[in-house]
Design brief:
Order of helices and strands: HEEHEHEHEEHHEHEH
Helix content: 40-55%
Radius of gyration: 19 Å
Strand order of the largest sheet: 2-1-3-4-5-8
Distance between the termini: 57 Å
Number of strands: 8
Number of domains: 1
Largest sheet: 6 strands, parallel
Oligomer: single chain
Structural class: alpha/beta
Number of helices: 8
CATH superfamily: 2-enoyl-CoA Hydratase, Chain A, domain 1
CATH topology: 2-enoyl-CoA Hydratase, Chain A, domain 1
Shape: globular
Strand content: 15-25%
């Protein structure tokens, strides 16, 4: 295969995988962009065709980010329907555990277990049209051993509540009330929060999109570097 054929094949693969014929040239930047999209996959593979974020891909990225001196800050972009609770919490704890400044921005949606991931960053933003769904922890499929299963779900839910309330300004009671509200979701319990409302509740720090997120992150990086210089 000659060079031209190789280039054409590469462009075809880009079109198939990413929907574009070409990508912008890599720009040297001290900011790493971490995307949480689709459904968060747990210990079992999702059905083929689902867009997924795999925690076994994200965790090594977080380790690499922490060790790379060229990376000064992390921008976390979310558009997720939620997914596996334990895997989502693992990602959230990993983001929270970084020593470098982190800013998250919810674009589209940060639903279910996406909520703890969103609030794990040092500073959080949500686009005006973006939504966050807050509901109790659930299992799908047949449940065997109901009392034990219910106890497990309650403990898992307590972990989610504790993480969210420790990393945002919302109170535990307010968050639990949102979880258990009847009528917000069709034939279900839970609450859908849109943009500004998430800020008013104290769940998210401010409204904004990528421009505001990058401005805030650069400000935080500058402050950290000044602190280290003293």
């Amino acid at each position: 295969m000659n060079e031209e054929e190789g280039s054409n094949q590469e462009k075809q693969e880009l079109l198939t995988d990413l929907g574009t014929m070409d990508l912008p040239e890599e720009i040297a930047s001290p900011i790493h962009c971490l995307t949480i999209i689709g459904q968060i996959e747990g210990h079992m593979f999702l059905a083929q065709g689902n867009k997924a974020t795999r925690y076994e891909h994200i965790i090594p990225q977080l380790v690499a980010i922490e060790q790379d001196p060229k990376i000064k800050g992390v921008l976390v972009i979310l558009n997720t329907v939620g997914g596996d609770v334990e895997s989502g919490l693992a990602i959230a704890e990993g983001i929270k555990g970084l020593s470098k400044p982190t800013v998250s921005v919810v674009l589209g949606g940060g639903h279910s277990i996406g909520v703890p991931i969103a609030v794990a960053a040092d500073y959080t933003l949500i686009a005006p049209s973006a939504t966050m769904t807050i509901h109790p922890v659930r299992l799908t499929g047949m449940v065997i051993g109901v009392p034990a299963t219910m106890e497990y779900l309650e403990r898992m839910q307590d972990r989610v509540v504790a993480f969210v309330t420790a990393n945002s300004k919302i109170s535990e009671q307010s968050f639990r009330n949102l979880m258990m509200t009847v009528g917000e979701l069709s034939q279900d319990i839970g609450t859908v929060v849109v943009g500004k409302r998430a800020v008013e509740l104290g769940l998210i720090d401010d409204e904004g999109s990528i421009k505001e997120a990058l401005a805030k992150l650069n400000e935080m990086i500058e402050q950290q570097e000044k602190g280290e210089a003293h």
